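dumping this here before i forget
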Amino acid sequence: MYLFNQIAIIGSTASGKTELAIEYAKKYNFNILSLDSLAIYKEIDIVSAKPTVEERAGVKHYGIDVIYPNESFDVTLFIELYKQAREESIAEGRGLVIVGGTSFYLKSLIDGISPMPTISEKSYQLTQELCQNIKEAHNMLYIIDKEYMQNIETTDYYRIEKMLNLYFETGLTPTEYFLSNPPQPTIIESLPIYEIVLDRDMLRDRIRIRTQKMLDMELIDEVAFLEKKYTQAPNCMKAIGIREVLDYFNGIYSVDELREKIIINTARLAKRQRTFNSSQFEEKISLPFNELREHLTLF
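structure:
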């Protein structure tokens, strides 16, 4: 009887997750599901540091080049991608490597999310009217549900909009709704989680090298293309590596300052990722890159 196998490889940005996942998948005949908030976009190739077509050769990838930059998504898209990857991997007799720096999506797959109602046009319009002043919209929700809204920033347009839609559609506060509709986990089989951990100096060196590589690969031209085609409106245009180049276009940075700013902001992101992984995944094996590679018996 076929037993479906899957593992997750997590770690901060530039820690070597993609390299390790591809090595593992090639050796053990696994497919790969990428959980990355930038690699999912078509045409965002350099700044996302997604594996090239050549690097992906021989391994089926999910979660890469799925939507265009002007299309929105949330965690539900990754849930559907996981279901597809799992179903097709089982049919092919393969395992699945789940890999990515956006560990929030992995956490959501493990813990589940609450099913959301279909939002009517009436509820949508009411929400859009209130969201013209996002701070007032937040205050309204805060008055009726302080417990839930105290954890949401007054500038978090996406979550405020989502909670308003929920309230107008169901008549329930977010707290009431989620209590009545508890989350259902998506991942049901065993999932060993492996984390790549690097000391601060080594990670900083890897970030510096990757940043220079992106600039050498014409990162600036890629962002110019994206801005011309999609404007600065899409959420992905606020990503690290894109927003700094846009500031460079506005004369805020020189090329050298641009490089350093990307390195600094990427290092800050890496710290947040390490903190999240430490607090959210208790049962995991955390090792430096080479030790984890040996642990996974790649060589």
